[in-house]
Automatic annotation (TrEMBL):
One of its GO terms (molecular function) is ATP hydrolysis activity. Residues 196-325 form the AAA+ ATPase domain. InterPro entries: AAA+_ATPase, ATPase_AAA_core, CbxX/CfxQ, CbxX/CfxQ_RuBisCO_ESX, P-loop_NTPase. This is AAA+ ATPase domain-containing protein. CDD domains: AAA. Belongs to the CbxX/CfxQ family. The keyword Nucleotide-binding applies. The keyword Nucleotide-binding applies. Keywords: ATP-binding, Nucleotide-binding. Pfam families: AAA (PF00004).
C-alpha cells in the first residue's frame, strides 16, 4: 500500500468523523454518483472489488458459480468443521474479507458548492404555509447565487409543505407549525450553551389528522438537517410498558434508542398514566421519557398526541418535569360541516370515483349528521366505504357507465349502515364489559 492509498471503509469512517453528513447531503451524493457514473470510474477495481467479473445476460456460468459458492446457504460448503461456522449472521464478515480493496485518495475529490457570484434578496412577508410555497414557485434555486433566506432548504421540503397546505381545515394548527418551522430553519434555537427543545404536543380528537401532521414534521426536519435521520416511530402503551418492575425502563429506553436522530410519536399518550391511580409502571416509563427529553434534546424529537384535558390530568400529572419540556403546543380544531364535505369529496376523487351530480352533495347533508361523526376523518372514510358498498348493490346489472358514480341515495344507504355498525359495536363493548363485573 502506497502513501496515497488506504482502505475504502477507513476512508469513509474518516470522512464521517470530519464532517457530520445531513440526510440531504447523502441524497446529493447519490445524485452525483448517478449523474456521473462513468466520470467517477464506478467500474474501477477500487469500487467493485477483487472478484468482480461481468456476466452476460445469456451466460449460465453465474448459476454454476453461485451453486458452489459459500454465499449459497442451501449448499454444503467445505468440510464439516467449516460448514458449521457458515450462517447468515457471519456472511457479511466473509464478504468483507473477499472485498478488501485499496483505493487511491488522489482520485476522490470533495463535493464543493460553486462560488457565489450573485446575490438575490427575497422580500416577502410570510404569514402562512401558502406564502412559503409562493416563494418556492417564484424563485428557482441557483447554486452560484446567495440569498437572504435559506431558499435551498425550502425547495428541499416543497413536497411536505404542499401536503400540509392541501390538508383541509386546521388553519390555526398550520400557523403554529409555520412558527416552529421558521424558528428552526433559521437556526434561532442554536446558540452558545443553548439548544432548545423540539418536543411537541398535538391536541385533538381521533381522526383529525394528528399522525399525518407528525409525519410531515418529521420528514421536513430530517430534510432540513434539524434531525439527522429520517426515522418516524409511532408507539402506544404496549410498546413502552412491561409487566415487571424494572423492565419498563429497559423497554422504553430501547424504543428511544431506535428513534435517535428522528421522531418518536406517542399517540393517545394519556394511556401511559391513570387519572387517579399512581401506577408504578407508568411512572417508570414517564420518568425514563422525561430523562431522555433532556439528555437527547439535540438528537430526538418526541411528539405526543391526544385530548388536551386527558393529557393534563394523566401524562403531565405523573411527572411535572414533562410539561416544561414540551414547549410547542398545536391544537387540532374539530371539523365543521363544510370541511367534512370537502374531505368526503377529496376521498372520492383520490380513489378515482365521481358523483352522479356533484351539485347534489350539500353542506346541509353533513351538518345534519355532524354530531354522529365523532371520529371525524376516520368516520368520513367509513361513510365512503359503506356508500361504495351501497352503490355496488344499486347499480348491479345496469349500464357500465353508472359504475363508480356515487349518488345521494348511495350516501344515505351508506350512512344507515354506518349507524347500524356503530351501534352494534357499542352493544358488543357493553356485553364484554358485563362479563368482568
Amino acid at each position: 500500500m502506497g502513501d496515497n492509498s488506504t482502505k475504502f471503509v477507513d476512508y469513509l469512517d474518516k470522512y464521517k468523523s470530519q464532517r457530520q453528513c445531513r440526510y440531504v447531503d447523502y441524497l446529493n451524493m447519490l445524485n452525483l454518483i448517478n449523474l456521473n457514473y462513468d466520470m467517477n470510474h464506478i467500474a474501477d477495481k477500487s469500487y467493485i472489488g477483487n472478484h468482480f467479473q461481468p456476466i452476460g445476460k445469456n451466460d449460465d456460468s453465474f448459476y454454476t458459480t453461485y451453486s458452489a459458492s459459500k454465499w449459497n446457504t442451501t449448499t454444503p460448503v467445505g468440510n464439516d468443521k467449516h460448514k458449521e461456522k457458515i450462517n447468515i449472521d457471519n456472511l457479511y464478515t466473509l464478504w468483507q474479507q473477499e472485498h478488501t480493496v485499496d483505493i487511491s485518495i488522489n482520485h476522490l475529490e470533495p463535493i464543493r458548492e460553486p462560488e457565489k457570484t450573485k446575490f438575490i434578496k427575497i422580500d416577502k412577508k410570510v404569514g402562512s404555509i401558502k406564502d412559503l410555497l409562493e416563494i418556492i414557485e417564484q424563485n428557482e434555486y441557483a447554486a452560484d447565487t446567495e440569498y437572504n433566506i435559506d431558499l435551498k432548504s425550502l425547495h428541499n421540503i416543497k413536497s411536505e409543505l404542499t401536503e400540509m397546505n392541501n390538508m383541509i381545515g386546521m388553519e390555526e394548527m398550520k400557523k403554529s407549525v409555520l412558527d416552529q418551522l421558521l424558528y428552526f430553519v433559521q437556526e434561532l434555537h442554536v446558540g452558545k450553551q443553548i439548544s432548545e427543545f423540539k418536543h411537541t404536543v398535538i391536541y385533538g380528537s381521533p381522526g383529525t389528522g394528528k399522525t399525518e401532521i407528525a409525519k410531515i414534521i418529521g420528514n421536513m426536519y430530517s430534510k432540513l438537517g434539524i434531525l439527522k435521520n429520517n426515522v418516524f416511530k409511532k408507539v402506544t402503551r404496549n410498546d413502552l410498558i412491561a409487566g415487571y418492575l424494572g423492565q419498563t425502563a429497559i423497554k422504553t429506553r430501547k424504543v428511544i434508542d431506535e428513534c435517535m436522530g428522528g421522531v418518536l410519536f406517542i399517540d393517545e399518550a394519556y394511556s401511559l398514566a391513570s387519572q387517579e391511580n399512581n401506577d408504578i409502571y407508568s411512572k417508570e416509563c414517564l420518568d425514563t421519557i422525561c430523562e431522555a427529553l433532556s439528555d437527547h434534546k439535540d438528537n430526538l424529537m418526541v411528539i405526543i398526541a391526544g385530548y388536551e384535558k386527558e393529557l393534563e390530568e394523566t401524562f403531565f400529572r405523573v411527572n411535572r418535569g414533562l410539561e416544561s419540556r414540551f414547549i410547542w403546543r398545536f391544537k387540532m380544531e374539530p371539523y365543521n360541516a363544510m370541511e367534512m364535505m370537502k374531505i368526503f369529496k377529496k376521498k372520492v376523487l383520490e380513489q378515482e370515483w365521481e358523483f352522479e351530480n356533484v351539485d347534489d352533495i350539500k353542506e346541509k347533508w353533513f351538518a345534519e349528521k355532524k354530531e354522529l361523526f365523532k371520529n371525524f376523518g376516520r368516520d368520513i372514510e367509513l361513510l365512503f366505504t359503506y356508500s361504495k358498498i351501497a352503490h355496488s348493490r344499486r347499480i348491479y346489472g345496469k349500464e357500465k357507465e353508472l359504475r363508480k358514480k356515487l349518488s345521494v341515495e348511495d350516501m344515505n344507504t351508506g350512512y344507515e349502515t354506518f349507524l347500524k355498525n356503530r351501534n352494534s359495536q357499542k352493544e358488543n363493548n357493553q356485553f364484554i364489559h358485563t362479563l368482568f363485573i
